[in-house]
Amino acid sequence: MTHAQPTAAAAAAHPVTDRTREALAVSLRGCDELIPEADWLKKLARSEANGVPLRIKLGLDPTAPDLHLGHTVVLNKMRALQNLGHQVIFLVGDFTSMIGDPSGRNTTRPPLTREQIEANAKTYYAQASLVLDPEKTEIRYNSEWSDPLGARGMIQLAAKYTVARMMERNDFHDRFHAGTSISVHEFLYPLMQGYDSVALKSDLELGGTDQKFNLLMGRHLQQEYGQEPQCILTMPLLEGLDGIEKMSKSKNNYIGITEDPATMFAKVLSISDVLMWRWYTLLSFRAEAEIAALKAEVEAGANPKHAKVALAREIVTRFHNAAAADAAEADFNNRAKGGIPDDIPEVTLAGAPLGLGALLKAAGLVPSSSEAMRMVEQGGVRIDGAVVSDKGLKIEAGTVVVQVGKRKFARVTLTA
Prior knowledge:
By secondary structure, the chain is of the alpha/beta class. The chain contains 17 helices and 13 strands.
């Protein structure tokens, strides 16, 4: 689709101004798909002409209590659209969480209990507000309209979509042909997510690429209920620290948005120079022209570390503050020189002389004694700055600074 076509189509109803084109460019930055782009341009032109903000929806099921940078890719897009003056709606899927989202799964996802949902939801919005402007964000819970539907309403809703079309969904199709069970309640998930768009009268719904089927369901159901269908905007899944797999806590390749500034800064500095530019596009609020200039400098011979430091500082500042970014950078430079951070945990242990593995585990530096031995084998354990190679070492009474890897430190006082 060319950009000239939607411009001409939109002009018939409302003029497409430079500001409208800029809003379209903001919408398209880093996105995977904008469907249909022509309709979104019409909505933007109408909003510009009549001064009525568009309603932009993002739904998140509180399946875990903490967000990482991968979750913020869509939140960043929401904030960018919020900055243009549109109304963003942060929808907590407290009802849909009890069904369990089957997206991208080859087995039925176990539903959460009401207690788990409520506990997770409490922290979700607080963390999302580190990206969104909380003063201009409408927060809703889909139990508001889903609970009152009742059995009659649910059956009427289910009548608006066919089993044949539901089976076009990739994960259902693959599971069916593999002979893997699909529970009937899983068909209800995309229907309920789509009904959220009807209840909220959304103009645009955001989500990851794995949510495309559910987002399209919203368009379909809005038409069924006589509403103007929403447009959908999918954002790519952010690669984690390894640059290969999508960011995930289970793969330990993530940066949590509530992690301490020094850890956050150091993790950003650990990514590859290639991945850095992908992160700039999806995570930075810098103008694209500014990012292009940075990239040109690096291609002309500038040290890529300077661009990476700038990205790390921006991310730490967003989730903490500028002073924290200064301190994190100083801490990183100090560690790079072999120095010991000023602020490290103080631990007091008894039982000297204590075996090295037991000490590292008790100090919270490793999850197990076997992991401690593995770190020793790799040369990743230091005591008072000296690398330890003896796995059988016993530590005598006294105070030592213990380091595991590049970022874990503890000042351990060991007593008899």
